[in-house]
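README: folding subset

This subset contains proteins for which both the sequence and a predicted structure token string are available. Records are stored as plain text. Below is the entry for inositol-phosphate phosphatase (281 residues), shown exactly as it appears on disk.
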Amino acid sequence: MIEDNETIDEFLARHASDVEEAIRKAAATEIMPRFRQLAAHEIDQKSGPHDLVTDADRKAELYLTEVLPALLPGSVVVGEEAVHAAPASYEALQEEAPVWIVDPVDGTRPFVRGEPGFCTLVTLARGGVLLVSWTYAPALDRLAVAIRGQGATLDGEPLRAGSPDPGRDLVIATSHPDYTTEEQKRALLGLWTDGVSPRACGSAGLEYLAIAEGNLDAVAFSWEAAWDHAAGLLLVEEAGGAHLTLSGEPFRITGGNALPFTASRDAATARRVVELLAGRA
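--- output ---
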């Protein structure tokens, strides 16, 4: 595992290419052969019609669950599908052992519809600190990597979120209403105001990437699932962006956040979005 005298840099120097290879192989062998080829029996609902799981999700996660801990002995995997089957496994995020946070197919609904807007998300964290993340969109062949304190890249080129253009409406991707409480719905209504153009979100991972690229100003999300947010939050941070919860504190991947929260291209935009959500604008 990452020993006390070994840095994340040293681990990545040995194994970054292995992690990338594992992610690409999971997509090549388990996800892309099923893209636009899914049979009805390969698609199931979890909590409802907007919460889908496919054989691609399950098999890609199983593959990554086998490969990633072998690269880092002593580490564990917190994966979306495994947690659905055994909710207590989510508690590993609170422990000190290194954790691989895995969303095998982020954007399952677009994947099922045969649209390319989905990705595989992998993040390495320890003690609640996000260390490195990979966001891979296999249908688009785009790979974004973020390393704490070292910046973010997309296909090897540096990412900088920049700041929104003055005078232009803020474009903000928001949670689907099915995933919000009545109180959160009221908070999100604060975004329906002059100077803001809210829209429904797609794959969370790709929305975070859009922020890091400077193609989206912010997101406003109302759920905490670590596999949806870990990779993107680090990506946005390392591209120069910021994230804040309704209480004005950064989002904690270990939970207990005041929701909704935002990730934004810069700190000023994050503060503005929280003000709108809190009704203080």
